[in-house]
Structures are given as structure tokens and as C-alpha cells.
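EI: anyone free to look at a 179-residue chain?
SC: sure, send it
EI:
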Amino acid sequence: MKKSFVTKGVFPYQWAFTLLFPLRNIFLSPKKLIQRLELKENDKVLEVGPGAGYFCIPIARKIKNGKLYLADIQPEMLAYAKKRLRRRNIENVEFHLCNGKSFDFPDDFFDVIFLVTVLGEVENKGAYIREFARMLKKDGIVSVSELAGDPDKMSIEELSALFEKYGFLFVLSIVIKEI
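SC: here you go
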């Protein structure tokens, strides 16, 4: 039996090209994400599970004096994103292969950590959130964006309980319609 990319679990790298469809802007555009993250030019930003790199190009350009770190458990996804960034001569990005449990970054390092339709796929969510708490600077932002219809989508209640357990203040931000 063939696996479909709409089942629960880690998104297959073989379908990475589907993550780049412009229709994705209907749900969350890079511009809207940048506004939500309140990015500054010199921020250190971590994207967990960047997939094919849909959001990384505009974010790397926005933080032109900062650095974007892409972390994924699939080397093929990192390679896909790296190829897209290099074609555009974007150099303020580092690529990190993760083990699914911990991150090899210092304490209090990032201004912003974000995930787009990723956290539901993570096997050990508590370990990730604990690591976010360790790596994030005081008053930093962790942004989790979920998409209706995603089989791994977490509810607001699940997200709130998970983050509050590790000392985060949960602030809900819902976009009704972009104009």
C-alpha cells in the first residue's frame, strides 16, 4: 500500500515541491508571518521544520544583519531549502540537521523561533518545547502556526497547555482575513 502525504506524521521529502505552491499564501503568507514575528534586522531566528523553504527567503531578507537558522530532521528538506537560498545568493542562513530530541544551540540564543504546520508532527513535543525555553532569549517569541485540514494540527487548547507547562505565556493570534 502506498503512503499518501495527507496522513499523520512527518511530511515526506518526496512531496517537498507541494510546499511551495503560491496558493499557500491564502492561509499564511510570508509577509503576514513576518509581521506576526515582529522581526528586526539583526535578529537571530530559528525555523524548525522549514521543509522546502517557503518562508525562509523573505525572512532571511528581512533580517539582513541577523541570521536565520534552519533546523530539520530530514536532510533532504534542508538540501532543498539550501538550494533555493543559494540560487538567490542569500548567505545569512545556517542549516542544522536535528535528531528529533534536542538542538545544538546555546542557551538564550534566539530572538524568535517559529514553526509552520510542524509541531503536530513532532514525536516528543515536550522535549522540543523544553529546548525552545532553553534557547530563547528573555522576552523572545515562539510562533506556532497550524493549518485547518492538516491531519497533525494541534488544537489551541493542546498548544496552550503544552507551552504553559514549560513556563511560556500563551498569546493567541488568529488571522481572520488578510487585506
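EI: The two ends are 43 Å apart (CA to CA).
SC: 👍
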